[in-house]
Structures are given as structure tokens and as C-alpha cells.
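Renewal narrative, Specific Aim 1. Our central claim is that a sequence can be written position by position from structural information alone. The example that follows is taken directly from our test logs and has not been curated for this report. It begins with the C-alpha cells describing the chain, in the order in which they were read.
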């Protein structure tokens, strides 16, 4: 259940129309690294996360991304709502959009490709999903960087800078959560051996751990819990000294 607050996360009050800027910023509404994809990615991934803290984080960030989607939609709307026919004709990049959608807000990339679920992933694997989320936040930050290089209206720049900053915060929160999750390894080891791989990967060199994982999977079925615990210590020590 969501509680909707009838205000934007950051105020937007754009005074001048700019169809060229709108045709660029729309990419963060429905582009491959945009806010629509981010919100659906996180709100879908949360169901398969093994820890309540991870479910909560993905719910929080996914919900905030919906608010960012609303901000981008508002920016595009305010940039185009009072366009003259001449302004549309002088901006062929927006004119093609206008033919299909007039000044409606439609989820598409700046390149013209409509939003597709193929741009997001929900694997059910915590390692894969959390690392994808780290990359996704950086790709969104990159897109906002590119937008800031191409727009010059302060009324547009300030909310875009705010959104860029939030991508960095989300990246940091995902990184912090991955490190904190490592501390839960002992709690989850005795319940589900497969989760150990998730927690063990994070603080140590991935390539080295990957070399050990086949032997570890063999040990799961063949040896006692005491041996498995010693094997974990061996990996940590060997990784520290030899990798």
C-alpha cells in the first residue's frame, strides 16, 4: 500500500518552453536507464531478497524512483505545454515525437525507442540483482550528466542536479547494504547453504572465490558443518595472502 503525497520531491517551476530539452530529458522517463525502469526493477527484485533489510531497501528506493518518474514527467510537461506551432517546426527532434503524442508524456528514450521491460532484469539471485542495481544507478547518473551538458535553463538544471544526486545516494545505499549483509553469513549458513555463496562473495576477491566455489559445493554434501566453517576461514585467509 502506498501513501501518495501531493507534492513533488523537489519543486519544479519552468518558465520557458524548450522542446529540444524536453526531447532529451524524456529519456529519463522511458529510456533504458530511466526512472520507470528503475522503479519496476527494484519493486520486482524485492520479493526474492533473502533479508528483510534488502526487501525494505528495494521498496524504499523503488518507491522513490516513482517520485522521480513524476518529476521527469512534470519537467517534460512544463517544457512543452505552451508550445507554438513555429517552435515545434523549428525542432525536428521534437516534431517526430509530436506527431505520435502531441505534448503528452510518453515513456520513450531520446533516441525514439519506446520503453521496454527488456531493459531491466529481476533474476532472483541476490548477487546478480544487487550488482545490476549498482550499475543501473551509475548509468542513470551518467544520463543526468549528459543532460546537464546539453541544457542551460536554471529552472531545468536544478531539479536535474537533484535527481543526479539521488542516483549517487542510491548507489551508496546499495553498496552499504551489500557490505552489511556479509555480517549475516553465520545466521544464514545453517539454514540455506546456497545463501552462503552470496555473502561470501562480497568482501573478498570474486575471481578467487569463484575458483573455490566448485570445491565448496562438493564439500556441502560430503563434510560436516565444522569442516565447512573451517573451509570458509581458509578462503578468507588465502584470499588475503595470495590474491
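The sequence written for that structure reads:
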Amino acid at each position: 500500500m502506498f501513501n501518495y503525497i501531493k507534492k513533488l520531491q523537489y519543486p519544479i517551476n519552468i518558465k520557458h518552453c524548450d522542446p529540444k530539452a524536453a526531447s532529451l530529458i524524456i529519456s529519463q522517463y522511458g529510456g533504458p536507464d530511466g526512472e520507470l525502469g528503475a522503479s519496476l526493477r527494484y519493486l520486482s527484485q524485492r520479493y526474492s531478497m533473502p533479508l528483510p533489510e534488502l526487501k525494505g531497501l528495494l521498496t524504499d528506493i523503488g518507491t522513490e524512483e516513482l517520485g522521480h518518474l513524476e518529476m521527469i514527467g512534470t519537467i517534460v510537461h512544463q517544457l512543452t505545454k505552451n508550445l507554438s506551432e513555429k517552435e515545434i517546426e523549428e525542432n525536428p527532434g521534437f516534431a517526430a515525437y509530436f506527431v505520435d503524442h502531441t505534448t503528452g508524456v510518453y515513456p520513450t528514450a531520446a533516441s525514439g525507442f519506446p520503453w521496454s521491460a527488456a531493459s531491466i532484469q529481476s533474476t532472483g539471485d541476490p548477487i546478480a540483482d544487487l550488482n545490476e542495481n549498482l550499475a543501473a544507478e551509475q548509468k542513470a547518473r551518467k544520463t543526468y550528466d549528459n543532460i546537464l551538458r546539453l541544457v542551460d535553463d536554471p529552472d531545468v538544471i536544478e531539479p536535474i542536479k537533484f535527481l543526479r544526486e539521488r542516483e549517487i545516494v542510491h548507489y551508496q545505499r546499495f553498496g552499504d547494504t551489500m557490505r552489511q549483509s556479509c555480517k549475516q553469513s553465520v545466521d544464514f549458513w545453517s539454514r540455506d547453504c546456497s545463501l552462503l555463496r552470496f555473502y561470501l562473495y562480497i568482501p573478498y576477491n570474486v575471481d578467487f572465490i569463484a575458483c573455490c566455489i566448485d570445491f565448496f559445493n562438493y564439500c556441502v554434501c560430503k563434510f560436516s558443518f565444522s569442516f565447512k566453517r573451517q573451509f570458509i576461514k581458509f578462503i578468507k585467509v588465502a584470499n588475503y595472502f595470495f590474491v
